[in-house]
Write a structure and sequence with these properties.
With 616 residues, the protein is of the alpha/beta class. The chain is 44% helix and 14% strand.
């Protein structure tokens, strides 16, 4: 009998010898307090063709499984699972622990069928909070079907927190112009999603950015008086519209308070993530004099004001920790109950150094790595795993209270959702118990628990396609260069090359031979995809999404060749291919997401479209 393949792998699993045959019919005794949690196992039995049912009599003849809370298990999310010749016993430290024990039992049933190995499992998580954050503001807002299905999948991996990063994509009653073109989530939809999450022991935490990344608001005249720089500001080699509210203006706080008053009643969570990251123009406009005089205290005081607003509403405040890191001497002055969200998405992010600063100041914090899906089209496998590992190791070292796997949508959110599954799964394992999951066989587990591929093709395909970025480099540029090239006109290429060389510590290898090697590697991998045998309902959609991502990446390499005078096709042929890819991008977008935001995202297609037309 093969060794169990579980996600996440339990802290301690002992095979005790032999196996237990599940009869066609037996009884499940579950204490009434955990009847819902036991339903996970009950449904899995029925899916396997076994007609087990519940009994209220613990001593009834034919009881095959006993499921209950056990006060001897001290961790509320911990559980003990015993499978022996006498039957199945699931004990949890609380309802969540029982639920997780039943989820492990479900995976065993799916792997082994009716003949499951006798074993004993003792398990509990490393991190109390293990979350996933989806970016629903740049530019994709998933359909409810997509969100509900994702909740189910994440719950099976023992994720217990979800955040939906929101700038303008909640349907605020009094701010229709902000979200009118975004297909936002409504209050009723949030309530449905919140209830569904609670069924799975997942906390849906509201997330509303409250300082920077407010450009979708500040572009309207009604809100421009709140801007730090109402007329915009220089950024890079260009000019940016305003993105940040003026932290000194009481009206900024008043707006945020009004947004919270409408948003928070739809959530049962006692937390609120107010964002606060990347206020690009802070100190360059209306707060310039204050920042010159008081430095980081302007930012700190704004956080403190938000904290009072959040606390008055009975919530605990989370905030992104990037800006306060520029002023480490101010960290001890943060409110003691605030939660810092320490984020960083490269494999070498200083989670160790930053975690120590928060820990030494007594500030509770999460570590927040990412899936490395954005700005990549197909992922950056090795960077994702390195980043997720770094966060887990140093989060444990410094006592982080949570681990949040972020999934962003920078630059039009061109990547498809399944690209993020690898990061979700690996992060779920590392955050549950790093010690027992650090050496996970990622391709094999992807095949079994993500893609359900009996041919064992998809796991390796996704893993290897996500490493094509290493052929070009550099390693740490928040994406991969062949993707960035698709939004870079020729006159910007030298500047972008210098930018990424400084950012990544080395220049991307854009030699024609290297680009052709990348094209050949992509073609080899696309051929492997043909032999998959996925059993998922959306198997064909997933295969199409990855074929499309690979084709987009391949097109990036061809564009880079053409820009160097080394192209393998006339610009008209590449334009035709680009238009075909555009049509497919729109079709695939709508398969999982709402139409709002699609036009904004597709507008970025015009950069390369214009380049090709200028070369005809």
């Amino acid at each position: 009998m093969d060794a169990p393949q579980l996600v996440p792998h339990p802290r301690r699993l002992t095979l005790t010898g032999g196996s237990h045959s599940l009869p066609y019919h037996a009884w499940i005794f579950a204490h009434p307090d955990v009847h819902h949690e036991a339903g996970v196992f009950h449904r899995a039995l029925h899916a396997a063709g076994l007609l087990w049912d519940f009994t209220a009599l613990p001593d009834a003849t034919g009881v095959g499984a006993r499921i209950a809370v056990d006060a001897a298990i001290t961790h509320p999310q911990g559980y003990r699972l015993t499978i022996s010749a006498d039957g199945i016993d699931v004990r949890g430290g609380g309802p969540a622990g029982v639920y997780y024990g039943c989820l492990t039992l479900r995976q065993l049933l799916r792997q082994y069928g009716n003949e499951i190995p006798c074993l004993e499992i003792h398990d509990h998580p490393d991190f109390e909070a293990r979350g996933v954050m989806l970016d629903i503001s740049r530019d994709k807002v998933p359909t409810m079907a997509t969100l509900l299905q994702l909740v189910d999948k994440l719950a099976h991996w023992k994720i217990n927190q979800i955040q939906l990063y929101t700038e303008h994509t909640f349907a605020f009653r009094d701010h229709v112009e902000v979200w009118a073109q975004a297909s936002p989530l409504t209050a009723d939809e949030i309530r449905v999603l919140n209830a569904h999450c609670r069924l799975h022991h997942i906390e849906l935490v509201p997330n509303q950015n409250s300082l920077g990344h407010m450009e979708r608001w500040l572009k309207f005249r009604r809100y421009q008086h709140l801007a730090e720089c109402p007329d915009g500001f220089p950024r890079g080699r260009g000019w940016s519209m305003p993105t940040t509210v003026n932290p000194l203006d009481p009206a900024s706080i008043a707006l945020m308070a009004s947004l919270y008053d409408e948003l928070l009643p739809n959530f049962t969570s006692e937390m609120l993530n107010v964002g606060g990251d990347e206020p690009w123009e802070l100190g360059r406009g209306r707060s310039k004099d204050a920042v010159e005089a008081r430095g980081g205290r302007v930012y700190l005081e704004y956080l403190q004001k938000l904290h009072r607003v959040v606390t008055e509403r009975g919530r605990q405040m989370q905030f992104w920790g990037d800006i306060i890191m520029h002023y480490p001497e101010l960290i001890p002055e943060l409110p003691p109950d605030i939660i810092a969200m320490e984020w960083g998405y490269e494999g070498n992010h200083p989670f160790d150094e930053h975690g120590a600063l928060f820990a030494n100041a007594g500030i509770p914090f999460y570590v927040c790595p990412g899936t490395s899906s954005w700005n990549s089209l197909v992922g950056r496998t090795d960077n994702a795993i390195e980043n997720l590992r770094n966060a887990a190791v140093n989060g444990l070292k410094h006592g982080a209270i949570g681990y949040l796997i972020t999934d962003w949508g920078d630059a039009g959110h061109w990547q498809m959702l399944p690209v993020s599954y690898l990061g979700f799964m690996v992060g779920a394992g590392f955050s549950w118990c790093y010690e027992s999951n650090q050496s996970m066989d990622v391709p094999a587990l992807l095949d079994r628990w993500v893609f359900e591929d009996s041919a064992q093709v998809m796991g390796r395909f996704v893993y290897d396609l996500g490493n094509v970025y290493q052929l070009i480099g550099p390693k740490y540029i928040n994406g991969q260069y062949m993707n960035y090239a698709l939004q870079t006109p020729r006159h910007e290429m030298e500047y972008r090359l210098d930018q990424f060389t400084r950012w990544g510590g080395s220049a991307p290898d854009l030699r024609p031979a290297t680009l052709r090697d990348a094209i050949r590697r992509i073609d080899e991998l696309r051929a492997d995809l043909l032999s998959n045998r996925m059993g998922r309902v959306d198997a064909e959609l997933i295969a199409t999404e990855f074929r499309h991502g690979a084709a987009m990446l391949r097109h990036g390499a061809r564009w880079l060749l053409l820009a160097q005078g080394e192209g393998d096709a006339h610009p008209s042929a590449l334009l035709e291919e680009w238009e075909t890819l555009a049509a497919q991008q729109q079709t695939l977008w709508l398969a999982r997401n709402r139409p709002g935001g699609l036009e904004d995202s597709m507008r970025r297609w015009n950069i390369l479209r214009s380049e090709y037309r200028s070369m005809l």
